[in-house]
Structure prediction request, 428 residues.
Amino acid sequence: MSIIKPHKLGIIAGPGSEYFTGRVVKHLRRLYIDRYNKLSEALTKRHNISAEELLKEVTLLDDLDSRKIPTGKLPTQFHCPDVTINVKYTRFANGEVKAEIIDPVRGLNVYIVYDVSNSFPIKVAGVEEARPFSINDHLMFLFTTIDAVKLAGAESITLVLPTYPYARQHKKAGREALTASLFARFCEELGVARIITLDIHSREIENAFSTCHLENLHGSYQTLIALRKLIDFSDPEIVVVSPDTGAVNRNKFYAQGLHRPLAILYKERDYSVVSKDAKNSNIKSINLLGDVSGKTVIMADDMIATGGTLIIAMKELMKRGAKRIICIVSLPFFNGSAIENFDAAYKEGTFWRIIGTNAVFQGKDLLEKEWFVQADVTELFARTISRLHHGRSISPLLDNRKFIQRLIDSSQANPNAALPQENDNFMD
Prediction:
């Protein structure tokens, strides 16, 4: 399969995921154009032919591989074909949903990009006004889309789910469902070949799959680029703090990369009390292993839901003399009144910045906050899709420590060095 054109590739956007999917497709088109330009430069020298002659050869191969008889004039420059598949989503008055595939998908490797955690109002057919959908509404749209694609003759189906649904329901304690595993079985029953997600809550979920492959990406490189714009990596007064014992490995990863000490917050809880929110918590006391006095604190976690315990942890660090606190999260959900709570904490000087990826849809009320910084992971998903589609290894994307170390070491050696640009082929 040619690596310069995405033959037999189709991309579908789930309801409410059009913007994220559009950015992924935009990066894909740029990747293929950049790749062609590099290949053209190399091949014209290697085979002693002109760029125009090479384009004719490439066009001939494309025409031979096309499912339609080509018409029209020969192109004068390389074009990346549109890989977007249009789908009509409908919600009926009784709550049932339907997905109708508009464009042909027979023989295509289809990637369904869907932010199933999007709780903002969404407009679909059959609904007069945009309305918010629950995660279960989104899952029914997802399942009907998978089935429609399968019945339409697609070669394979891959789900691109920036947030894995029910990821926190992966442990069984008593008579309860393992919903994370249940979702995996649903996908395998429907014929899904692969799922691509970001910073899954527990790697144990991977054990729930038998035929489907789970690819767990990490947004650490992208969040570190955003962090580099805020602080000097060569600052010796940086300390990485794990907000709890469950996040030690994640924060150890950042501490090792930044060559800075690691501190740990340990919370003692009274489990006879049920936590309701940050003000009504079962946390009895918080102990700190390490020193944060006068330091810039970096804390990393996989997600912010209501954020109550995180705010408690940040207040404790400020009491212990932290100069400023920056929190890095892969999935900034900000459920319920979280934005208002963080806004109040920011005004009180509890923290300085929150860095979160755009894997979760965010409204203007969050994006306009001075304290929130967004890290873009759409290029990461685009490169993963391209590599998988062309049978290339995605190991460099799954284990990005080499690129992170290069970024940090160069920044610490030269704090005034230019930041990596969006179009840098750092993982190509």
Observations:
- The chain has two domains: 1-219+377-392, 220-376.
